[in-house]
Amino acid sequence: MNYFFEQIASKVSSATGRPIAFILAMTTIIVWGLSGPIFQWSDTWQLVINTGTTIVTFLMVFLIQNAQNRDGCAIQAKLDELIRAVGHARNEFIGIEHLSEKELNGIRQTLEKAGGDDAVRHAAILRMLERR
Questions:
Q1: Are 32 and 49 contacting, i.e. CB atoms less than 8 angstroms apart?
Q2: What is the pLDDT of residues 2-27, one digit of tens each?
């Protein structure tokens, strides 16, 4: 079941991220809007677009979340491999995405302190930008 869902989710999210999907959605809305006078702006006419967009939105939430979960896992695996492969990197950082938000904020604050104060970091960023 998981494999089937991942295959479908990957194909659908890839297809809906293309310009043609946007054009198709926009065309649907334009056709719906132009058909208003034909259906005398009835409640049923409005219900059709409301129901359709609600269903599509509901399903897309799950597909987008699946794609983000896969992307996030892939990025974390790549970062973990870089940490593992670089000689001076601290292996303790592998897997920190599983820590609580409070623990992660503590690590971030500690790293920012180790990086120097704001003025030092700002000057380093400006030097880097000037090299471009």
A1: yes
A2: 888 888 888 898 899 899 999 999 99
Provide the whole-model pTM.
Answer: 0.66
Q: CA dist 79 to 83, 88, 94, 120, 128, Å? A: 6, 14, 8, 26, 23
Mean pLDDT calculated for residue range 86-99: 89
Q: How far apart are CA 21 and CA 120, in angstroms?
A: 47
Burial of 50 (0-12, 13-18, 19+ CB in 10 A): exposed
Asked if pLDDT for residue 35 goes beyond 90, the answer is yes
Integer Cα distance of 43 and 70 in angstroms: 41
